[in-house]
Write a structure and sequence with these properties.
By secondary structure, the protein is α/β, with parallel strands linked by helices. It has helices at 12-26, 39-48, 53-70, 77-84, 115-131, 156-169, 186-193, 199-202, 213-222, 242-264, 293-296; strands at 89-95, 101-105, 140-145, 174-180, 205-208. A 5-stranded mixed beta sheet has the order 1-2-3-4-5, sandwiched between helices. The chain is globular, with a radius of gyration of 19 Å.
Length: 298
């Protein structure tokens, strides 16, 4: 059985045994979800806990409890529209060269004081990004632009909660985090933040500077410069447009609502392929571990 670079390799039989054991451990908690989850989802939790069954099962139970209470799949555009006005987080209309979904973040464009609203907006954006992920990918890229950033742009409370949600409930979803032009003062903030991050998470974070030749080469390796926004060194001058983005998000909300309704009446089928992290079974029957590219990536 293939594995991600540097990770433990399991045979198909070993992997199937671990998955089946976890399924036994998380019943009846799993019944709280609107649809069944897939082997691929369990694989991500196993990888996040270095294939330890008990630790992965506990992590999965915690996520099931969180999703049952928070109901992230039911957050709608109208719930977070105010948070989105400045374009502080949005899903880009391009991918990196690996085909990964890109979330653009501009913490310096913070426009509210509500930590509750800010976290809800983050979760909405995560769910939407994963709903639109390519079928051969399971990770996303965060492009974080520090234009206008200051120490007052984000609170430590929101930072801690962001790290917790990402690591606890969306494991193995961040492929790369690019910090673009962070100011010198950010170094002290980063020193405070790193203890909240697991080692494998902060190792995925890269510092990139527009006035550095090696950084430019790195961006060109990762992205098609014709589609990459000019604010990140690309040649695409089209920026964030609130009205256009709102329309796009409301269309995605309708897809989600239709899926929720279909799942409630026993429908769904192949539409599960493109739905968010925990709702999506990634296979129409939630079964064979070798049936999809994502499953085989375990």
């Amino acid at each position: 059985m293939s594995s991600k670079k540097g990770e433990k390799t399991l045979s198909p039989e070993e992997l199937e045994a671990k998955i089946n054991e976890i399924r036994k451990l998380i019943v009846p908690a799993a019944n709280k979800l609107p649809v069944p989850f897939s082997d691929a989802i369990i694989c991500r939790y196993l990888r996040a806990r270095n294939w330890n069954i008990k630790k992965a099962a506990k992590m999965l139970k915690d996520t099931i409890k969180w999703r049952a209470e928070y109901k992230p799949e039911r957050i709608r555009w109208e719930d977070i529209a105010k948070e989105a006005e400045t374009g502080k987080i949005y899903r880009a209309n391009y991918h990196d060269k690996l085909g990964r979904t890109v979330l653009v973040m501009r913490p310096g464009f913070q426009n509210t004081n509500s930590s509750k609203g800010q976290i809800m907006f983050l979760v909405y954006c995560m769910e939407n990004a994963l709903m639109n992920i390519n079928s051969d990918q399971e990770e996303m890229v965060w492009l974080i632009d520090f234009q206008g950033w200051s120490m007052s742009s984000i609170t430590m409370k929101v930072t801690r909660e962001t790290a917790n949600i990402l690591q606890a409930h969306y494991p193995e979803r961040l492929g790369l985090g690019i910090l673009y032009n962070p100011p010198k003062i950010f170094e002290s903030f980063w020193t405070m933040v790193k203890p909240f991050l697991e080692t494998k998470t902060h190792k995925k974070v890269k510092f990139v500077y527009s006035n550095d030749a090696l950084s430019h080469e790195k961006m060109e390796e990762l992205f098609d410069l014709e589609t990459l926004e000019s604010s990140f060194g690309g040649r695409n001058s089209t920026g964030f447009n609130y009205e256009t983005y709102a329309k796009q998000m409301m269309e995605d909300d309708k897809k989600m609502a239709d899926f929720i309704g279909s799942a409630a009446t026993g429908g769904g089928g192949s539409s599960l392929q493109n739905l968010p992290s925990f709702l999506a079974s990634e296979t129409s029957d939630g079964g064979d571990i070798a049936s999809t590219d994502e499953n085989s990536a375990c």
